[in-house]
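Subject: Predicted fold for Cytokine receptor family member B16, 182 residues

User T.R. writes:
Posting the sequence so we have a shared reference for the thread.
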Amino acid sequence: SFLMLSDSLLIPKSLSTPLNASMHSVNMKHILKWSLLQASCPTANYSVQFQGEYEFYNLNGTWVDAYDCQEISKNWCDLTHDLASNSDYSIRIGTNCDGQKSWAQLPATFNRRDTVLLVPKMTVNVEGDPIQVGFSTTLSDMTVNLNVWQEGDEQNIPVQGTMANPFHFRDAQNSAILCHCF
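User M.O. replies:
I've generated the structure tokens; pasting them so everyone works from the same file.
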């Protein structure tokens, strides 16, 4: 009997890094996406780390593990809660396959100030009392300033700030509604 060893078992292959990594940030929800490495490693899992200005300048360049994105098999990571300040973040994705690890870093820093804010869709239900004004695609911590006035009384417009969704108006018969979302 004899034992035959293949070269592929003796020489470790270099591990590919995730490709096409990009940040998608809409309405302050920050999703990192990348291409999977199915062909080169069907059992790959991924970990995401970030480094903000604080970690870079005050913690000697320390990288922080993204809370829900360690040793995951999916090709996306929700970094919304991790990237909580208006600072520039470096972000990297680690690939682990059969004990080998490689890292790919986004080519540019990310700042949540660059998020794309969508115009909220407003619906108004005027049947009965109170009038209901609802919004979709708003952020959970967004304050909506609603102005309601009687037609012809545009000079005395009270501003009502609310985080409620939907918002209810009492005694708002024959009123115009104007929304400023902040």
